[in-house]
Each structure stands twice: as C-alpha cells, then as structure tokens.
Description:
Layout: H1 2-29, E1 38-40, E2 47-49, E3 54-56, E4 59-61, H2 64-73
Antiparallel strand pairs: 1-2, 3-4
The site of zinc ion has 7 residues, from loops.
Amino acid sequence: xxxxxxxxxxxxxxxxxxxxxxxxxxxxxxxxxxxxxxxxxxxxxxxxxxxxxxxxxxxxxxxxxxxxxxxxxx
Length: 74
Ligand SMILES: [Zn+2]
C-alpha cells in the first residue's frame, strides 16, 4: 500500500510540474488579438480600425459625413 501512495505522489508531482510550465508557453504562442488593420480617412487623414471605417470608391473614411464631402469635392 505504501508503494501505491509513493507512485501517486510522484505522478501528482509530475502533473503539477507540467501544469506550472504549460500556461507560460500558451501565453507566448497566442497571437495578439488587439491588433487590427488600421486605415486612414481619405478626407481628414485620421487613423481608425478598418471595422469602424466607412468604405467607398476603394477608400476609407472616418464617417459618412467625410465620405460624402470627399465624393462631392472630387
Ligand atoms: Zn475623416
């Protein structure tokens, strides 16, 4: 019975050692999610994420207002 407890403790120690090392490796491997494609407004030049930009005529704008102003001026 004593041997069984000894092996159980060894197994627990190995499991514990792996568990401590694993999260650090995962953090290094995970790609940064905060990075997004940045585009600049063709009218005022302000930088904003592509998902928030208004696109028209293969150009990006910070707002519909600037999109309309750019189309009118060009
Ligand atoms: Zn703008």
